[in-house]
Write a structure and sequence with these properties.
This protein is an alpha/beta fold. Helices cover 51% and strands 13% of the residues. The chain has a five-stranded mixed beta sheet, sandwiched between helices. A two-stranded parallel ribbon has the order 1-2. The protein is globular and about 65 Å long. The protein starts with a helix and ends in a 22-residue tail after the last helix. The structure holds 5'-O-[(R)-(carboxyoxy)(hydroxy)phosphoryl]adenosine and zinc ion. 5'-O-[(R)-(carboxyoxy)(hydroxy)phosphoryl]adenosine binds next to α4 and α5.
Length: 298
């Protein structure tokens, strides 16, 4: 991955400039992701951004990857602060009250796997390609989502924490059960497991979203709810969250799917918000593997 980053950073930068019809000197500031994430890739991107900033003599802005996901709705829909955010990706699954730029309260999180990780692992168990989320979504369309009733750990606890590892284990056991009876999985089996898993995972999100709304209302006024992160590209999940939010009279926003999965536009946009607020960083800002949103609170 490190090698891939090194090989592509320069080309990607040149291509972005060409598409925007800009010379590099016309850029006002350089924003780069400085965490959280696999540290090799984070360091490579951060160093590249710092080098550009120092050569061009432009301000450097260190972006938290999660803040990029959190603010994407403001790029796509101009969503106003405050809003309730469900951030659901391959590494994170959290409910956050986004009060304003740099003011985040985490209301609850997964206690074990992130949901995207569970999608990827279930897809692997079913012999599907990586990333697993889009594959599960595709196969689920032809499946019977009631064939398997998987467990929903901590579902009834009145808080916004979630747990997906028991669900993942239950999926594994159901696959083993089919294999022990018939030797392999038919394409109908794959679709039924995918559909049942996706339904139960969505039920967990919906239940916890409704608790999250109750908590959020104790902290903030605006009735706005947003979903973002790679899993938010899932149209089935988006539809069900939208229905729930409309019942609660919330304005629901999901950025276009290509802005939900990792992308540079959301990092540039977070950089723009910080730049406009006069927040810039020193060039010695250290990249970090772990960096919670709450640490950004000023
Ligand atoms: O935000 P993201 O691109 O990277 C991280 O920050 O983790 O999220 C990637 C995750 C992967 O686990 C991938 O399987 C999942 O998002 N994902 C989906 C869909 N598209 C991507 N999960 C469910 N349905 C999808 N359509
Ligand atoms: Zn991400």
């Amino acid at each position: 991955m490190l090698c891939y980053h090194l090989k592509n950073l320069e080309n990607a930068t040149n291509q972005a400039l060409a598409e925007a019809n800009l010379e590099i000197q016309q850029i006002d500031a350089i924003a780069a992701t400085c965490g959280p994430g696999l540290i090799g890739g984070v360091i490579t991107g951060a160093m590249f951004g710092k080098s550009l900033s120092s050569v061009l003599q432009k301000p450097f802005i260190a972006i938290n990857h999660l803040e990029g996901h959190a603010l994407t709705c403001r790029l796509s829909h101009k969503t106003e602060y405050p809003f309730l955010l469900l951030l659901v990706s391959g590494g994170h699954c959290q409910f956050i009250a986004v009060k304003e730029l740099g003011n985040y309260t985490v209301l609850g999180s997964t206690l074990d796997d992130a949901l995207g990780e569970a999608f990827d692992k279930v897809a692997r168990m079913l012999g599907l390609a990586f990333p697993g989320g889009p594959e599960i979504e595709k196969h689920a369309k032809n499946g019977d989502d009631k064939r398997f009733d998987y467990p929903r750990p901590i579902y009834h606890q009145k808080n916004c924490n979630m747990s997906f590892s028991g669900l993942k284990t239950a999926v594994r056991l159901s696959i083993q059960d089919i294999l022990s009876k018939q030797g392999d999985l038919t394409s109908q089996d794959v679709s039924d497991v995918a559909a049942s898993f996706q339904r139960v995972a969505t039920e967990i999100l919906l239940k916890k979203m409704s608790f999250a709304i109750d908590y959020y209302e104790k902290l903030c006024k605006g009735k706005r709810a947003v979903v973002s992160g790679g899993v938010a590209a899932n149209l089935y999940i988006r539809k069900h969250l939208k229905d729930l939010c409309e019942k609660k009279e919330y304005n629901f926003v999901a950025p276009p799917p290509k802005l939900c999965t990792d992308n540079a536009a959301m990092i540039a946009f977070a950089g723009l918000e910080r730049f406009n607020a006069g927040i810039i960083n020193n060039i010695d800002f250290k990249p970090r593997a772990r960096w919670s949103l709450a640490e950004l609170n000023s």
